[in-house]
Write a structure and sequence with these properties.
The complex is a heterotrimer of chains A (347), B (72) and C (418). With 72 residues, chain B is an alpha+beta fold. Chain B has three helices and two strands. In chain B, strand 1, helix 2 and strand 2 form a beta-alpha-beta unit. Helix content of chain C is 21%, strand content 31%.
């Protein structure tokens, strides 16, 4: 008989609701709650040898310690597989399932499976590395969730590798993944073109991102009293790159104080952008962030002032969504500081 | 990025050489820079000329921030 | 313009006393081939090997792959301009040894790794892992310029290809294939007129293709006859990139062949434009408009397939061309490789007009090659960022297996959300 350990939170372990959310890790030597239904569906070949549980608050407040203790409890039951959840839409429970799955998978090297709703933050954390059965938002979906999980568990116990995001009710991993199809790309391309010409609805293999129209912000009335900020995706940072801005697939930005600098000097700043020939900018960073002439403009009154920081990241390979997130953060802080307009430069 | 800053209520001029790439992301005020490797400069000019050019490019960028409807 | 390929299938490849082709068996005299290749002034020595499907062999640092071709010297040469005198390609009969590859390998600066596995998962991903190959591994003359040696390496591959196919001189082919395509307007059909816009890698030595021996960096978008490409007009000198199309791919051009196959059945193959990936945005934009005008007014196409030949910057060309064509009233389909690390778009640039795209796969996705190799040809370490034991299990991006990602559509790989 294959040995399964089931992870649940305090509520499904029968210890109580929110009032017991602080309960520490523990183990029961039997299937409880949703585990009973799972046990029925799995039949003779597999048995839940232990139910390991932890209060959701306890886990989120003592994650490291709780994970270590839960790992010990799981290990002691000598399982062939760990199943966690279903956590449905509960965020803290989902994150605990994710943490336990990840630790057990890494430490014990056994197959692990979680179940929760695709919108659960726990799913986002592990869906690219661990198979996660997609469920509804509430325990009203229990039966379907357990049935779907049982089907995957049976597959896993027969030794079949179940990749994250594969078919069979698992939550997609996100991103794009290679697969083979029957026709070569040349033939598919001609098929698609003929369909497009004949006016059929065509199914592109690379969907377009959502192009959202944006209402332009009102223009600046009086530049003489306006404060301008400088933002670049050209990767200009103080030499040594103190914030570790990545040269490719950047996920964060740096904010650098201009102090009383009249211009940006090549021995103080450099571009870490991995996608263009940076020599001209490294020689004279004003070619990317035109500080010198903007100081002139402020001095002669044609511009009101300059924001005291410039913001920098690299634009190459960065997904539009990530760039948009960074821009929203930058916009929020610029608004707070009363900035009226931005000059954004790219390589 | 330019689009999100505009959405946040801050007029933003995007100075870039890859104009169509910026257009395709939905940016509103796009200005073509001098070259991909140095949008606000030109190493082939002497220092004074380059600074004059940069001032002129910056004025052009600032003008675009004044426009109410973004780039025509 | 009539062009005919005379096919000589190769079922086995081995060394022997005389270089000859007999009923599917290709025998090669190693010393004679060596002497032929040493005619390249920058090549000091050359190591030659034969690899066969199923061998526990991995070839590293692949520079190019060529299909053996021969043409009657009185009437032409198989790779005019790139090797030998200039003739017009795509006319008359050319001999081809089918199902065999001449593989050149060499360590050249700034190159990314490109491998061929003759067994295991790597061989399943590339057609070059499934056909016998003759591997040419030249050694550079002391002090030779790396770029010039790269070109010598490329020519060595072409030389070996001609040397092998010469064996079919005077022999009857197993079959012949005619590629007749009259590019004049034929009023008697209402099938859609489809054109092909082919971008070529064009960033200088080691990052380019050669058109009649001339760098594609120096061409402008031009109307060419598709048969010219099937007959050796375009040769690969793009050894620095793994997702290149080898000369072997171009000689068997999957997109051109597909359009030929469906000509006068589903469509009229109206012609093609060969374009390059310019280095600056202004040139890219002007090139895209120029290509669209040629397709609209010279080729007189109403729909166009567009393929690219490079990474991120090539996406900009693809999208500019898509936009220019669609604005000129031409319907487009784009063929693109993807570079996705997460949930975001997998391309550097996407135009709203690009509503019909075909994916040839996601380049950075890793493949686990778990077959252990007995022989590794070409080097004792991987180039670039790939870490691991060259003869053992290794995880590498799929793009480093040459042939797995095929920018001109010869592979069945694609990428999907998952």
């Amino acid at each position: 008989m294959k040995r399964i350990v089931h992870y649940v939170n305090q509520f499904f372990a029968g210890l109580g609701g929110e009032e017991s959310a602080g309960s520490p890790p523990g183990a029961l030597e039997a299937a409880v709650g949703p585990g009973r239904l799972l046990q029925t569906l799995l039949g003779e070949g597999a048995g839940i040898v232990a139910t390991v549980h932890c209060g959701d608050d306890h886990f989120s407040e003592n994650e490291e310690e709780a994970t270590a203790r839960l790992l010990e409890l799981v290990k002691a039951a000598e399982p062939d597989l760990l199943f966690a959840g279903p956590a449905f839409g509960s965020g803290r429970y989902g994150l605990a399932c994710a943490g336990v799955c990840r630790a057990v998978g890494a430490e014990l090297g056994i197959p692990v499976l979680a179940a929760m709703s695709p919108s659960n933050p726990g799913a986002d954390t592990i869906r690219s590395e661990i198979p996660v059965v997609g469920t509804g938002e509430s325990s009203g979906d229990m039966r379907a969730a357990i049935e779907a999980s049982a089907a995957v568990i049976v597959k896993m116990l027969t030794g079949e590798t179940v990749a994250p995001g594969s078919e069979g009710g698992l939550i997609p991993r996100g991103g794009r993944w290679n697969t083979r199809v029957s026709k070569r790309a040349a033939e598919r391309a001609v098929d698609l073109l003929l369909a497009k010409v004949s006016g059929d609805l065509v199914e592109t293999e690379i969907p377009l991102p959502a192009f959202q129209e944006v209402e332009p912000a009102p223009g600046i009335h009086d530049l003489g009293h306006a404060k301008i900020a400088l933002v670049t995706t050209g990767g200009l940072v103080p030499r040594g790159n103190p914030d570790g801005i990545k040269s490719y697939l950047s996920t964060h930005f740096g904010a650098y104080h201009l102090e009383s600098k009249e211009h940006l000097a090549g021995d103080e700043f450099e571009s870490v952008h991995g996608g263009f020939f940076t020599a001209a900018v490294n020689d004279d960073p004003n070619r990317l962030i035109p500080l010198d002439v903007l100081r002139d403009a402020v001095r002669d009154g044609s511009l009101g002032g300059l924001h005291e920081y410039f913001y920098s990241t690299t634009g190459n390979g960065t997904p539009v969504e990530t760039a948009a997130d960074m821009a929203r953060d930058i916009a929020a802080s610029l608004e707070e500081d009363g900035v009226d307009g931005v000059i954004l430069t790219s390589a | 990025m330019a689009k999100e800053l505009e959405r946040g209520g801050i007029p933003t001029v995007h100075v870039t050489n890859l104009v169509s790439v910026s257009e395709n992301t939905g940016a509103k005020r796009i200005m073509s820079g001098r070259a991909i490797h140095h949008v606000f400069g030109d190493p082939s000019l002497d220092a004074d000329e380059e600074r004059r050019l940069r001032r002129q490019l910056v004025e052009q960028a600032l003008e675009m921030l004044k426009e109410q409807e973004g780039a025509p | 313009m009539d062009f005919e390929l005379a096919h000589f299938p190769v079922r086995s490849l081995c060394w022997g006393a005389h270089t000859e082709y007999r009923e599917g068996e290709l025998v090669v005299n190693r010393e004679a081939l060596r002497a032929e290749l040493l005619a390249e002034p920058l090549i000091d020595d050359v190591e030659l090997s034969i690899v066969r499907p199923g061998d526990r062999t991995r070839i590293l640092h692949v520079v190019d792959i060529v299909e053996p071709r021969w043409k009657d010297p009185e009437r032409g040469s198989p790779f005019p301009g790139s090797l030998g005198p200039l003739y017009q390609c795509g006319l008359g009969r050319t001999h081809a040894l089918d199902g065999v590859a001449v593989v050149t390998s060499g360590s050249l600066p700034r190159s990314e790794e490109a491998i061929i596995d003759m067994c295991g998962p790597g061989s399943e991903l590339s057609r070059f892992g499934q056909m016998p190959g003759l591997v040419v591994l030249p050694k550079a003359r002391e002090g030779s310029d790396p770029g010039a040696f790269g070109l010598a390496l490329m020519r060595a591959g072409l030389r070996a290809a001609v040397f092998l196919a010469q064996t079919t001189q005077g022999l009857e082919p197993a079959r012949t294939e005619a590629f007749s395509l009259d590019l004049g307007r034929n009023a008697s059909t209402d099938l859609p007129r489809v054109g092909y816009l082919s971008f070529s890698y064009s960033h200088g030595i080691g990052r380019q293709k050669l058109f009649y021996g001339k760098s594609t960096k120096d061409i402008v978008p031009s109307v060419v006859h598709p048969n010219e490409l099937l007959d050796g007009a375009l040769v690969n000198d793009g050894y620095t990139k793994p997702t290149k199309n080898a000369t072997h791919d171009i000689l068997n051009h999957p997109m051109i062949r597909e359009l030929h196959r469906r000509h006068n059945r589903d469509l009229v193959f109206a012609g093609m434009v060969l374009a390059n990936h310019y280095a600056t945005y202004e040139e890219k934009a002007a090139g895209a408009w120029h290509a669209a005008r040629l397709l609209r007014h010279v080729v007189e196409a109403e729909a166009v397939v567009i393929t690219k030949d490079g990474g991120g910057q090539a996406d900009v060309d693809l999208m500019l061309a898509c936009r220019a064509c669609e604005e000129a009233g031409l319907r487009t389909v784009l063929v693109a490789k993807e570079e996705s690390g997460g949930d975001g778009p997998s391309m550097v640039d996407v135009a709203p007009q690009a509503d019909a795209m075909v994916s040839v796969g996601n380049c950075p996705e890793k493949v686990r090659l778990d077959e252990s190799m007995e022989l590794v040809i070409g080097g004792d370490g991987f180039l670039g960022a790939i870490q691991g034991d060259v003869s053992g299990t290794v995880e590498i991006p799929v793009q480093n297996i040459i042939g797995a990602i095929d920018p001109i559509g010869g592979s069945t790989l694609t990428a999907r959300p998952g």
